[in-house]
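User: Could you go from structure to sequence for me? I need the amino acid at each position, not a summary. C-alpha cells:
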C-alpha cells in the first residue's frame, strides 16, 4: 500500500515524519511538504512534488500573505495542484496533517483524503467556518481534531470526526541523554532561539533578559537548536564564551556549552524540547510548535510577539493557552519582568503549567492514526 502524507510547515513536518516513520514498516510512504525543505523526513521516506519557499518563512504576520504572493506563493500553489492532478491513482491512501492547505490542494487536484489530522485549530480559540466545514465534508473521510470541542462542531455538521489526543504531544522531541547532572542545584530555563533568519536577534534578546536575573537566581539556560541553526554561530552572535563540555557527560545530542559573563552556564542541544522543558521553570521564545508542546507538558510559556504579528493570531493563541502563556513584546524590560515573575513564584508557575496541560491535551492521536490507516 502506497500512502502520501501532506504537511505544510516545519512543525507539521516533524509530526508528519513521526507518523510516516510509524507507518513505514507496513506501507510505502511518500511525503509532500508544501513549504520548506522537508528536512524532518530525511531518512524516513522520499519527498515528492514541488518545494515551496515563503518569503515570510511561515510567520503569519501583518502583510505576510501579500508578501508571499508577491514572491511566488500563487505560482507554487499552481505547481502543487498541477502535480496532484498528474498523480491520480498513485496513492492508495492520503493523509493531510496541518491546516486547510493540504485539504484544498487535494480538492483542487482531484484527490480524496482518507485522514485529516487538524493540528492547527483548537476549540478553546477557534471555530470552523461554513466554508471550512464544506471543504472537510467534500474531501476528508475522517477527521481527528485537537480537542472534542472542535470534533463536536464537525459531528453536528454530519462529519466523521473525533478526538483521541493531540498528535503534537505524540511527537515531542526528546533527548536520549540524562541532563540532570548538568543542571545540578540550579534552576533551569529553556530559551528557544528559533529556526528562521531572525534566530540570532531573538536569542540575543533572551540572553540579555536572562542576564539581568542571574545575579538574583542561580540559573542554567537550556537551548534546543533547530536543524536550520548552528550552536557555535548562536554563541558567537550573542557574545557568550564557549567553554569545554564536561568530560564525563557527552553525546551527539549535547552540542556545546557556553558561559555568560558571570559564569552562568548555557547548554546547547540537538532539539529535545521535551526533555529540556520538563527540567525548566519556563520556556521562552516566539510562538510555535515547541511552545505549544512545552505548555502541553505542563510548563508555562513566555511568548515573544514581534510588532508586525497578526493581532488576530496573537489573540487566538492567548485564548487557547490561557494563563499558561505570558505574552511580551520584543522588549528586554518586558521579557525580564515576565521571567522574573515565574522565577519568583514557583507555585504560580506550576499553576500556569496545569492550565497548559489541560488546554493542549494529551498524546494518543498517532497510534490511533496508524491503526486507522492500516485497518483496511
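Assistant: Here is the amino acid at each position, in order:
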Amino acid at each position: 500500500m502506497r500512502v502520501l502524507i501532506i504537511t505544510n510547515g516545519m512543525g507539521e513536518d516533524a509530526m508528519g515524519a513521526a507518523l510516516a516513520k510509524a507507518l513505514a514498516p507496513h506501507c510505502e510512504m511518500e511525503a509532500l511538504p508544501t513549504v520548506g525543505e522537508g528536512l524532518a523526513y530525511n531518512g524516513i521516506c522520499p519527498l515528492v512534488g514541488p518545494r515551496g519557499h515563503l518569503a515570510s518563512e511561515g510567520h503569519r504576520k501583518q502583510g505576510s500573505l501579500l508578501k508571499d504572493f508577491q514572491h511566488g506563493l500563487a505560482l507554487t500553489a499552481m505547481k502543487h495542484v498541477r502535480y496532484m492532478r498528474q498523480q491520480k491513482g498513485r496513492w492508495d491512501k492520503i493523509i493531510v496533517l496541518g491546516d486547510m492547505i493540504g485539504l484544498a490542494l487535494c480538492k483542487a487536484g482531484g484527490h480524496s483524503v482518507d485522514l485529516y489530522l487538524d493540528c492547527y485549530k483548537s476549540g478553546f480559540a477557534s471555530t470552523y467556518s461554513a466554508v471550512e466545514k464544506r471543504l472537510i465534508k467534500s474531501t476528508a473521510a475522517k477527521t481527528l481534531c485537537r480537542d472534542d470541542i472542535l470534533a463536536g462542531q464537525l459531528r453536528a455538521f454530519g462529519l466523521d470526526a473525533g478526538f483521541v489526543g493531540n498528535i503534537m504531544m505524540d511527537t515531542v522531541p526528546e533527548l536520549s541523554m540524562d541532563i540532570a547532572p548538568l543542571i545540578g542545584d540550579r534552576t533551569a530555563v529553556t530559551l528557544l532561539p528559533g529556526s528562521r533568519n531572525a534566530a540570532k536577534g531573538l536569542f540575543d534578546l533572551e540572553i540579555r533578559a536572562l542576564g539581568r536575573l542571574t545575579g538574583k537566581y542561580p540559573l542554567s539556560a537550556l537551548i534546543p537548536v533547530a536543524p536550520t541553526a548552528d550552536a557555535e554561530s548562536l554563541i558567537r552572535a550573542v557574545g557568550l564564551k564557549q567553554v569545554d563540555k564536561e568530560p564525563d557527560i557527552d553525546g551527539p545530542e549535547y552540542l556545546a556549552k557556553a558561559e555568560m559573563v558571570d559564569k552562568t552556564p548555557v547548554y546547547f542541544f540537538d532539539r529535545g524540547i521535551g526533555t529540556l522543558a520538563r527540567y525548566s521553570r519556563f520556556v521562552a521564545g516566539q510562538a510555535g510548535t515547541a511552545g505549544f508542546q512545552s505548555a502541553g507538558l505542563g510548563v508555562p510559556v513566555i511568548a515573544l510577539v514581534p510588532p508586525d504579528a497578526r493581532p488576530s493570531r496573537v489573540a487566538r493563541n492567548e485564548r487557547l493557552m490561557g494563563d499558561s502563556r505570558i505574552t511580551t513584546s520584543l522588549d528586554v524590560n518586558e521579557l525580564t519582568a515576565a521571567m522574573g515573575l515565574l522565577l519568583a513564584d514557583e507555585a504560580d508557575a506550576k499553576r500556569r503549567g496545569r492550565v497548559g496541560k489541560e488546554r493542549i491535551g494529551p498524546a494518543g492521536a498517532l497510534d490511533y492514526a496508524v491503526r486507522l490507516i492500516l485497518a483496511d
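One structural detail worth keeping in mind: The chain has a mean pLDDT of 91.
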